[in-house]
Amino acid sequence: MAARPEQKTFGQSTTSLHSDRSLENGTAVAPSIHQSVSYLAESGEDFLHKATEPLNDQFYCRHGNPTSSRIAKVIAELEGGEAAMMFASGMSAISTTILAFVENGDHIIAQKNLYSATASFLNRLLPKFGVDVTFIDQTSIENFERAITPKTKLIFVETPSNPLLSITDLRGVSEVAKANNIITICDNTFATPINQNPISLGIDMVVHSATKYIGGHHDLLAGCVTGSSNHLGTIWDVSMDLGPIAAPFNSWLALRGVRTLKLRVLQHNSSALLIAQQLEEHPKVGSVYYPGLASHPQHELAKRQMTGFGGMLAFDILDGYEAGRTFIQNTQLCTNAPSLGGVDTLVTQPAEMFSARLDETEIQALGITPGMIRMSVGIEDVADLQVDIDSALFSI
Ligand SMILES: *Cc1c(COP(=O)(O)O)cnc(C)c1O
Which of 64, 68, 73, 85 is nearest to 22 (CA)? Predict the structure, then answer.
């Protein structure tokens, strides 16, 4: 007789839908939103136990919350972490995680192409507390090796990076870090856990702005970190003092979003590739930055560490800044708005976005050209987006 089929591991969509179900008793199909700030303690002993246990979600809401535990469980499962924690924003996840592992006198290595608020946290805030940061070109592993000092405690990377979709060799970074006893953190927001799992490549911790693909609908602000239970305990301990955790309702929205993450990301992947190919052929467009294109300088590396190339791309409009503005003004389906990773297509002009924090030479040094457009490709019918893009380019 054939053995009864038994399922031990699940695919990414099943994981997104089922991995948190065991965390709540009851029969409701949709999760509850636990708004309660505090929970009954059965005894003095129970009170003390709940107050000190990392990530306990039924004591006081700053310590944890049952709704946040559910989305955290899904993210940990998707990324291959032992535990995860939800934050009020991507930046609170990033800043709390970094603060948990460094102290006065320590040194951090970070890549030079980073989300701008992460860069600002590292180069404006941390030096005030005696933490030194070296920014390096992330396209070569030797640059990481060369930057290591006896004080290097942590390496922070982001791949693909904002806004130029540069790729960092995660396996290479993790090997160099492990050999030197250095902690590694990767911002996996652009890739999503569907396309890339840094922990499986040896990275210690993964952070996300869940505001982007995990939430996916432009209607919540949240962040998360996942990694070993040990590391999460350390982060939780610091979060007790900083208080950066997610509100239950935002965790609930993120949980609702993550249920469809794989469906959406597969669509983002395929639409973005088609649009990148279309732009590459267009006479008014210079470089197109998309890791799924054979012309991307790190396409081979992207293929090794990603299973899909994501929904983010950038391209240079040859005629410069004003032409870029004209393009944006003439699209019908692409909204000129910050943020990314949601169902709607959004476009920005990085030269403008970055001028809020940087001067012209600094912007140029990052490789950003005046006519560059960053596009977060949504899940509209791709044929409609392609016509819209062609028509807006025609208007220049
Ligand atoms: C948006 C973003 C962040 C910051 O997240 P918030 O939720 O806005 O705080 C960090 N890293 C990347 C790559 C992002 O896109």
Answer: 73
**Per-residue pLDDT tens for 298-331?**
999 999 999 999 999 999 999 999 999 999 999 9
Overall pTM > 0.85: yes
Ramachandran angles phi, psi of 306, nearest 5°: -125, 145
Q: CA Rg, the chain, in Å? A: 22
d(CA 256, CA 261): 9
Q: How many Cβ atoms are within 10 Å of 109's Cβ, its own excluded?
A: 28
Ranges of H-type helices in the chain: 12-18, 44-52, 66-79, 90-101, 116-120, 141-147, 170-179, 192-195, 229-242, 248-258, 261-280, 299-305, 321-330, 350-354, 360-365, 382-394
Q: Is 115 a catalytic residue?
A: yes
Contacts of 124 (CB under 8 A, 6+ apart): none
Model confidence pLDDT, tens digit, residues 84-140: 999 999 999 999 999 999 999 999 999 999 999 999 999 999 999 999 999 999 999
pLDDT value of position 1: 62
Q: How far is the CA of 26 from the centre of ligand 1 (A)?
A: 35
Active-site choice (39, 62, 132, 303): 62
Coil, helix or strand for 346? strand
Q: What kind of architecture, by CATH, is found in domain 44-258?
A: 3-Layer(aba) Sandwich (3.40)
Omega within 30 of 0 (cis) for the link into 193 = no
Length of the chain: 396
Q: Look up the CATH number of domain 261-394.
A: 3.90.1150.10
Atom number in ligand 1 closest to CA 189: 13
Helix, strand, coil percentages (3-state) for the chain, rounded to 5, are 45, 15, 40
| Residues ≥6 apart with Cβ < 8 Å to 312 | 160, 162, 163, 165, 190, 272, 340, 341, 374, 375, 376, 377
Indicate if ligand 1 lies below 6 Å from the C-beta of 89: yes
Per-residue pLDDT, averaged over 239-256, amounts to: 98
Spell out the domain ranges in the chain. 44-258, 261-394
**Is the shortest distance between the CB of 90 and ligand 1 below 6 Å?**
yes
In this structure, what are the phi and psi dihedrals at residue 146, rounded to the nearest 5 degrees? -65, -30
* Candidate from 96, 188, 189, 220 with most ligand 1 atoms within 8 A of CB, to mutate: 189
Q: Is 8 a catalytic residue?
A: no
